[in-house]
Amino acid sequence: MDTMTLWHITGWQFAALAFAALLVGFSKTAVSGANTVSLAIFAAVLPARASTGVLLPLLIAGDVLAVLTYRRHAHWPTLWRLFPAVAAGVVVGTVFLTWADDGAVRTSIGAILLMMAAVTVWRRRAAETEPDPDAVVTRGGRIKARSYGVLGGFTTMVANAGGPVMSLYLLSAGFRKLGFLGTSAFFFLIVNVSKVPFSAGLGLIDGNSLLLDAALVAFVVPGALIGKWAVNRINQRLFEQLVIAATVVGGVQLLLP
């Protein structure tokens, strides 16, 4: 894999990656979807494809911290309905990565994120969303879960950018803050761990990437602690606005050359 080692990274580049790792922890315990900014930073400092292999173990570390923090708030019926569609999306994403170059990956993910953000804003303005997460048992809810699940699996495989897609799905399903964070914590821990063999098989995870991870993982922990402190000080409306805003910012960054 064409990635950098610690000895090839300048001080400013390492500082940028450290900030991105801090933001990973924050996104896992506060504003899910904010790690699209981390994705953009990693892709700017490292080769875009290689950056996904470096970022994945850091995301898993953040997922573990999020599960420990919000494990009592997960909504498992939603998770079980999402996983089959997500698995299909991961397979499609793996096939896509076998031939796509960095530009195709960035453009595809950026366009999907902006489209999903626009759809979510439109839906929330058009009508009041159902506040009961069990609404996913309806036919329309199942179709929506499958659609978001495939997109989430695809985006998380090709660029670790599934956070915004699933965030938008959980918001549209009416999840409140703690249920949102607990459900997404278990979802991404399971999905990200399942991606490791695929990423390793594609050569995206190797000794160099793990060396960078070892140096950066310490920054994930304080980010998660800051997020845990902040989430109780963010009201529901602001929480939803931040999630959507982070999605738009991440999408725009991916589309920029």
Automatic annotation (TrEMBL):
Membrane topology term: Multi-pass membrane protein
Transmembrane segment boundaries: 49-70, 82-99, 105-122, 178-198, 210-231
UniProt key word Cell cycle: no
Superkingdom of origin organism: Bacteria
Keyword Cell membrane on entry: yes
Record localization: Cell membrane
Pfam families: TauE
Keyword terms, alphabetized: Cell membrane, Membrane, Transmembrane, Transmembrane helix, Transport
InterPro entries: TM_pro_TauE-like, TSUP
Similarity field: Belongs to the 4-toluene sulfonate uptake permease (TSUP) (TC 2.A.102) family.
Protein name (record): Probable membrane transporter protein
